[in-house]
Amino acid sequence: GAVVSQHPSWVICKSGTSVKIECRSLDFQATTMFWYRQFPKQSLMLMATSNEGSKATYEQGVEKDKFLINHASLTLSTLTVTSAHPEDSSFYICSAPDDGDQPQHFGDGTRLSIL
Amino acid sequence: AQSVTQLDSQVPVFEEAPVELRCNYSSSVSVYLFWYVQYPNQGLQLLLKYLSGSTLVKGINGFEAEFNKSQTSFHLRKPSVHISDTAEYFCAVTHSGGYQKVTFGTGTKLQVIP
């Protein structure tokens, strides 16, 4: 069964709204989680590294004020897309390493469509 | 820094024919290597992984890959493809040790022709 749960799996909303995506590790603790974004017909690109109890680390070109990451517990990281616009429409996937085991566990992804 | 190159963006192949999807990586440290498959509108499914040991690794659905350190390659092969293998395939790399990010290649679309 899934060891990383991502919710919601699909969301459609109007331009200007904020959307929160959750990533949960189900049977292990994850001090670090990763958030990726995949545009249509493209590869997965790392957006940010989520660290429990501290600030997230963002990749170059990713706006930290637009993509808010909160890793408040050892099993939950959230990604909030603030004031979403159509260009933010994408497939967002999280991953979490389990005590260094390989591979990391990936969520099933969230398809975000902004109208 | 690490990087992954998948030179072939699309690979058409007839059903029951063999296929090889190419992957080359670059890294200054030891790495772990993976192949994932992604079907339309779905998440990632792990096909196989190389962590250490035998350089020939076997995965699910009849796929296998060979790690070649001297050529920094990790090509994916299948001796006989099926229509159901039509999908996007991603090669990925991460540094060994610790909690490291995964770097993905640009993907190869495998199109199996009946």
Features:
heterodimer; A: 115 residues; mainly beta; four-stranded antiparallel sheet; 11 strands; 0% helix; B: 114 residues; six-stranded mixed sheet; globular
Could you outline the blueprint of secondary structure elements for this entry?
The complex is a heterodimer of chains A (115) and B (114).
Chain A: E1 4-7, E2 10-13, E3 19-25, E4 32-38, E5 44-51, E6 57-58, E7 67-73, E8 76-81, E9 90-96, E10 105-106, E11 110-114
Parallel strand pairs in A: 2-11
Antiparallel strand pairs in A: 1-3, 3-8, 4-5, 4-9, 5-6, 7-8, 9-10, 9-11
Chain B: E1 3-5, E2 10-14, E3 19-21, E4 24-26, E5 31-38, E6 44-50, E7 56-58, E8 64-68, E9 73-78, E10 87-95, E11 103-104, E12 108-113
Parallel strand pairs in B: 2-12
Antiparallel strand pairs in B: 1-4, 3-9, 5-6, 5-10, 7-8, 8-9, 10-11, 10-12
The number of helices of chain A is: 0
- Tell me the series of helices and strands of chain B, N- to C-terminal: EEEEEEEEEEEE
Helical element count of chain B? 0
Instruction: Give the biggest sheet of chain B.
Output: 6 strands, mixed
Give the helix level of chain A as a range of percent: under 10%
Distance separating the two termini of chain A = 33 Å
- Low-confidence sequence ranges of chain A: none
Q: Into which percentage range does the β-strand content of chain B fall? A: over 45%
Largest interface: pair, residues per side: A-B, 22 and 22 residues
Quaternary structure classification: heterodimer
Could you tell me the radius of gyration of chain A in angstroms?
A: 13 Å
Q: Count the E strands of chain A.
A: 11
